[in-house]
Amino acid sequence: MGVEGCTKCIKYMLFFFNFIFWLAGGVILGVALWLRHDPKTSNLLDIEFDGAQAPNTFYISVHILIAVGAVMMVVGFLGCYGAIQESQCLLGTFFTCLVILFACEVAAGIWGFMHKDTVSREMINFYDSIYQEALSQNNNDQQKKNTATPVLKVFHETLSCCGKGVEDAFISVIKDKLGMTNMCPSSGLKVNCHQRIQELFSDKIYLIGIAALVVAVIMIFEMIFSMVLCCGIRNSPVY
């Protein structure tokens, strides 16, 4: 007993989309955990210099993504169960959760678009401050300079780059050869660290954006199907 005809077809389509939604939640959760523990980003974002921590804007976004992935898995399961059981209460709750998630996703997307360059810009500024200290000619602050040099090398080794530009890299190479410093990896002498930082975080932000777009499309179909199924259940003579 239950819904019949087209409404029954909608029921199984909703179940299918909810299953995809549940899987998408798992994928997003997995990707977010990978972004959180990726060696490159972890090495850079865990850096501390002169009492200051590296900018954590990227980690805030990733933690939000982890929460979204977990919620999506719960909501996806709720939708699957509600569709199979043909429960108006569960489907109504599912629809409400979807609307809230969709609104949060749109708001996060707008915020992300407006601040898409913030993460890389903050990290570049952080790198520049360390770079300036490491190459400082002020002998009165030698201790800070000695602290900055190994921190700067973490950037260079992690990203296979050196300096803010080709000229900076050339000067650093000369100083390395003269034994004055030891900062540049041989694999990244001609690579701009500003460019490397931008590529690292921009690529990951685009990955998050693509995932959010795919999920948003699925959510729109699910909201439509859940309402159609809910109305079909209410109008069914069986109920």
Can you describe this structure?
The protein has 239 residues and is mainly alpha-helical. The chain has 2 domains: 6-116 and 205-235; 120-194, no CATH class. 77% of the residues lie in helices and 2% in strands. The protein is built from 8 helices and 2 strands; from the N terminus they run ααββαααααα. Strands 1-2 form a two-stranded antiparallel ribbon. α3 (57-85) runs antiparallel to α4 (88-114), α4 (88-114) packs antiparallel against α8 (193-235) and α5 crosses α6. The model has no long low-confidence stretch (mean pLDDT 76).
Short description:
This protein folds into 2 domains: about 5-115 and about 205-235; about 120-195, no CATH class.
Order of helices and strands: HHEEHHHHHH
- How much is the average pLDDT? 76
- Round the Cα radius of gyration to an integer and report it: 25 Å
Number of strands: 2
Distance between the termini: 9 Å
Features:
2 strands; two-stranded antiparallel sheet; 2% strand
Give the SSE map.
Blueprint lengths: L5 H32 L1 H7 L2 E2 L2 E2 L3 H29 L2 H27 L3 H17 L7 H18 L6 H12 L15 H43 L4
Antiparallel strand pairs: 1-2
Helix pairs in contact: 1-3, 1-8, 3-4, 3-8, 4-8, 5-6, 5-8
